[in-house]
Input
Amino acid sequence: MNNCSPVIEGPIFAIVTPFNAHGMLDEMALRDYLDYLESVGVKAIIVNGTNGEFPSTTIEEKLKVLEVAVNHYSGKIISHISSCCYHEANKMAWLSSQADALLILPPFYFNSLERTGLVAYFRQALNGIVMPVLLYDFPRYTNNPLFC
Output
């Protein structure tokens, strides 16, 4: 990734995370899926987002999905790093350095935070991060609207 803000053109497609019958990441299915998305002209994807089962996957699984995407998909990749734990979100941000941008929700368990609490959360979650970040406004699930 270059250090300038990447141009990310839409539509941005939030991918699913395929699992096999044993509950393990199905890497072959993920590669086939990414091939299909490229073949129909998708230029940007979000990995490990809401459609990607982020609340129920481990950091290791998220990193594997990101690794497969980075090694197999030629479009722009946005790594969803959300967690209620700002330490975990920050760790995912650092480990997502090969992505073109990051995506983060407000802490979804701690709903109805004061504005100062949201700002403090994002500061901690993104501490030291210099890559582009998209704030994900999803008040239906976070009850923390980013925009009034």
Observations:
- Residues 59-72 form the longest helix (14 residues).
- The radius of gyration is 15 Å.
- The chain has a mean pLDDT of 86.
- The CA atoms of residues 41 and 75 lie 9 Å apart.
